[in-house]
Amino acid sequence: MILKSKAAVITGSTSGIGLAIAKALAREGADILLNGFGKPDEIEAIRSGIEAECGVRALYSGADMTKPSEIAAMMEEAEGAFGRIDVVVNNAGIQFVSPVEEFPPEKWDAIIAINLSSAFHTVHAAVPGMKARGFGRIVNVASAHSLVASPFKSAYVAAKHGIAGFTKSVALELATHGITANCISPGYVWTPLVESQIPDTMKARGLTKEQVIEDVLLKAQPTKEFVTVDQVAAIAVFLCSPAATQMTGANLSVDGGWTAQ
């Protein structure tokens, strides 16, 4: 197990990609802190299930990723409980689809806060301890939209481009400290986030649900298949492995060929 005696914080990890990554890291021996929203009983079932299956400690924080003070408290809680934070996975994200002139400013602010600024706050808190121990793995879940754009997603595209740039800058700063920073850029993954944006896309483009899936979502991906959460999780595990020690500042596309076009 490559992460035995290590500890990881994974934001946005009560469902979808984040949960798959959390489970994958736990299977590799990492104690984990889950974060996200959901029904308390369902989150507790997830948390306790990971502990039972993987034999690790699993904590949960409901910290709001729009609030720096709550992020700082979450990171402090993890450091206090585990004695260390070795891996930070910034996965929390929301989406909103609208023409730019109709885009609600409060939606812009929320998307930038959750999809971009929260990554700064987690890294800001984790790096001192990582430096002291001479080891750290920062994995930012970006998107194909960190490399290319789509209409009606101005805030999301801006945030994901920002994550890619932030990752590169942090990687350069930490290159001599045993800490790597990389991002994973999935194409369309079938998650609650993707499913929830279909109605807005239907409205914005005047399409049916089937047309959105076939002509908007999978149109971009030459394989004509959704990426799976487990495929993304496997890449996250690889980035934490010894094989990836010399990988830093990279942006790994897992998008069915989308950005190869």
From TrEMBL:
Keyword Oxidoreductase: yes
Enzyme class: oxidoreductase
Name the UniProt record assigns to this protein: 3-hydroxybutyrate dehydrogenase
Any one GO BP annotation for this protein: monocarboxylic acid metabolic process
Organism: Methylobacterium planeticum
Enzyme Commission number(s) of this protein: 1.1.1.30
Keywords annotated in UniProt: Oxidoreductase
GO molecular function: 3-hydroxybutyrate dehydrogenase activity
Keyword Oxidoreductase: yes
Family that this chain belongs to: Belongs to the short-chain dehydrogenases/reductases (SDR) family.
Entries under SUPFAM superfamilies matching the protein: NAD(P)-binding Rossmann-fold domains
